Amino acid sequence: MRHYETIFIASPTLTDEQSDELVKQFEGIIAEQGG
Asked: Is the pLDDT of residue 1 over 80?
């Protein structure tokens, strides 16, 4: 299995809660695709 790194750029003005939600969304997308 190949391992890949993913980088996303988020606004520095996001609150901690918004940042956490953004990470959860990306984790969900990756999990849905079998990653």
From this structure: no
Task: Give me the number of domains the chain comprises.
Answer: 1
For residue 12, the Cα-to-chain-centroid distance in whole angstroms is 15
Structure-token match 């999990």, residue found: 31
Q: What single string gives the DSSP state of each residue in 1-35?
A: -----------TT--HHHHHHHHHHHHHHHHHTT-
* Boundaries of domain holding 24: 1-35
Percent of the chain with pLDDT over 90: 66
